[in-house]
């Protein structure tokens, strides 16, 4: 029996094993998921310092002449003490002298031979950056389950944290099956075609932060598919395409069966992509996608990406949608929930006009897709829809409803 999209996703999240961990240096952390909390060891700034190139002065000297004694630069270990009637020239980022009440920017003073004349209005603490005002020692900077982006690297570097514990990236093996398929580096006869699914999944899995192995293209024979499965079993996820329908040469699930394949679902109430199959061999997850390229790519977006998120250790492991409106009217056949690719321009969603599961061109000009509920056969222009991006990440901590209904 076919499962619903929600049931399929639930089975995916329930049956995806925990990841193992490793320690990595800061320069290699980008895209990994933290497997430990990170606590600040130092205040930031670690000393009171000047926010401007200017003069360290006393507030009571407002409107008066102050004698400039010397200059402090960023990086100087100043132990000076400021006294009334005097000013110490100071550069941005330099440690302020003891007794400083405010910093006056260079452009706000009048220079004279005897010193500088200070403006009338001086305020206590103006242009001073205080120790710990950005980060306090002991503050939890990052936590287990966060995916590391460039601005998290900023925090780690600010603390001199050089090595952290992360989850290993999901390791994905890709292969396709079909006697008609040739690789892009081979020549094709008039009755053959290039395997476009495997390079698509390979690149997309890399984009999604995985280590990827391309195992090859198998012939439609049990023996050859067995060989490809054996070569892929050391990975966290095997993604295949082709051979999952009811044709005389559709051996994929049978071939996996020889390795103790535990199938969680092998049909989904979805169009395209009905024969999409998910299961496990030991600790290795398996996603068998249909051969039709658009069906395969869209189902990889929805189910493949969910498996990868579940495997990554990322706390924000659920796909999320952006609510927008339709750019045009859209008519479709009622029946099964339908995946429709299209382009979201930041304002509205333009569905791809005419597409079928065997096409390869629709996704190249799309940046998202919508899932239209089976109860809907017409979406009017301006109707509210939920787009799921294919070109940028948008995930959330909580599972959300991804389906657009009237
Ligand atoms: N009698 C039925 N026939 C079909 C049904 C059905 O329910 N009853 N379902 C159709 C649907 S829907 C799909 S989807 C396909 C799925 O078939 P398979 O997964 O077995 O895929 P293949 O037959 O191997 O190939 C389908 C199609 O896609 C091309 N293909 C396959 N692999 C690749 C690749 N790596 N790169 C590019 N193109 C690929 C292949 O040449 C075929 O044209 O079954 C329907 N039939
Ligand atoms: O289900 Mo097929 O995947 O429609 O093309």
Automatic annotation (TrEMBL):
Enzyme category, top tier: transferase
Cofactor needs: Mg(2+)
Superkingdom: Bacteria
A single MF term (Gene Ontology): metal ion binding
Regions that span the bilayer: none
SUPFAM superfamilies in the record: MoeA C-terminal domain-like, MoeA N-terminal region -like, Molybdenum cofactor biosynthesis proteins
Any one GO CC term of the record: cytosol
Enzyme nomenclature, EC number: 2.10.1.1
UniProt record, GO biological process: Mo-molybdopterin cofactor biosynthetic process
Domain MoaB/Mog as annotated: residue spans: 173-310
Membership in a protein family: Belongs to the MoeA family.
Function: Catalyzes the insertion of molybdate into adenylated molybdopterin with the concomitant release of AMP.
Protein known as: Molybdopterin molybdenumtransferase
Natural source organism: Candidatus Sulfurimonas marisnigri
């Amino acid at each position: 029996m076919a499962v619903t999209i929600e049931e399929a996703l639930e089975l995916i999240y329930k049956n995806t094993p925990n990841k193992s961990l490793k320690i990595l240096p800061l320069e290699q952390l980008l895209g990994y998921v933290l497997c430990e909390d990170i606590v600040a060891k130092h205040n930031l700034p670690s000393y009171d310092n000047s926010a401007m190139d200017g003069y360290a002065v006393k507030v009571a000297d407002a409107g008066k002449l102050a004698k400039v004694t010397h200059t402090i630069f960023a990086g100087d270990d100043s132990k000076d003490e400021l006294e009334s009637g005097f000013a110490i020239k100071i550069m941005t980022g330099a440690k302020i002298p003891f007794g400083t009440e405010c910093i006056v920017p260079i452009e706000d003073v009048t220079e004279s031979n005897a010193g500088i004349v200070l403006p009338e209005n001086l305020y206590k603490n103006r242009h001073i950056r205080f120790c710990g005002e950005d980060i306090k020692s002991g503050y939890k900077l990052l936590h287990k389950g966060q995916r590391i982006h460039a601005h998290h690297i900023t925090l780690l570097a600010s603390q001199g944290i050089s090595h952290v514990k992360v989850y290993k990236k999901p390791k994905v093996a890709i292969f396709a099956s079909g006697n008609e398929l040739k690789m892009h580096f081979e020549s094709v006869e008039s009755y053959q075609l290039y395997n476009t699914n495997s390079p698509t999944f390979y690149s997309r899995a890399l984009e999604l932060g995985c280590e990827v192995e391309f195992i090859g293209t198998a012939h439609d024979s049990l023996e050859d598919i067995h060989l490809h499965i054996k070569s892929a079993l050391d990975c966290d996820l095997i993604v295949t395409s082709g051979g999952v329908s009811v044709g005389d040469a559709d051996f994929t699930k049978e071939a996996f069966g020889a390795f103790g394949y535990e199938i969680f679902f092998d049909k989904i109430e979805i169009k395209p992509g009905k024969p999409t199959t998910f299961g496990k061999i030991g600790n290795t997850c398996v996603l068998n996608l249909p051969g039709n390229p658009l069906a395969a790519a869209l189902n990889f977006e929805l189910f493949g990406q969910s498996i990868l998120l579940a495997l990554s250790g990322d706390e924000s492991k659920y796909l999320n949608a952006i609510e927008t409106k339709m750019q045009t009217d859209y008519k479709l056949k009622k029946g099964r929930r339908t995946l429709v690719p299209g382009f979201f321009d930041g304002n509205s969603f333009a569905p791809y006009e005419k597409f079928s599961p065997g096409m390869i061109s629709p996704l190249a000009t799309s940046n998202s897709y919508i899932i239209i509920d089976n109860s809907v056969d017409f979406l009017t222009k301006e109707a509210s829809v939920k787009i799921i991006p294919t070109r940028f990440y948008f995930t959330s901590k909580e599972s959300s409803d991804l389906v657009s209904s009237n």
